[in-house]
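From the shared-data thread, chain only:
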Amino acid sequence: MKADSVLPTVPIFGIRVSKVDMKATVSYLTEAVRNREPHQVITANPIMVMTALDNPAYMEIMKSAELVVPDGTGVVWAAEYCKEPVAERVAGFDLLHELLRQGEVYNWRVYLLGSTPDVIRETASRLQTQYPRIVIAGYRDGYFGPEADEEIIADITRSQPDLLFVARGADSQEPWIAKYKSRLNIPVMMGVGGSFDVISGKSKRAPKAFQKLRAEWLYRLLKEPTRYKRMLALPKFAVKVVREKDKVTKVQ
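Structure, as tokens:
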């Protein structure tokens, strides 16, 4: 069941983005786990939207996801600018932790996939310590090619997780989940980007000041100047929204 049949959404260039806050999002996904309804959760940002506009296959992945939440500040701004505001930004990193807090109540099983062997081991260890009542059902690093997919799918399905978090970068994690979600059949399957790097201590999240200013993207750029080409999508997105204001939220 797609979230837009239950939750209010706003289409951003044809991608239906949830308008509800973090609490309602977690409540909705808790029901998904309870009912064993598979959901691909995409944490949308402007870079992903611009990629989708340039790549029909990626657009189809975004449109077919059961739930798309407004992770990027630019997506929140676009909805507000077009007079279809969302309740708040639902950051993927925070959603991961909120789901794990909820998982403590129900002893949910969690599978972690992605990043380097050292990072994934440390992430599993730290999350188990932080959330002792969840079950880390399994984990695997993200350094594998298509030839390993069958083995990984088998390992994941054997572990019977309630939550699957995949950290392989937006260009590969969303397509991978979309390709196999019907076989994985997990209630919550979510791409989490660099979250494992932060959880493991390998890197730091933007300070609170940057978060409050909605400028986490700037902090990442300052820390990793090589990201500048990727970040060029941000002003392009803003210009497109301003120029096409009347079309942004039209159903496509």
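The chain has 14 helices and eight strands.
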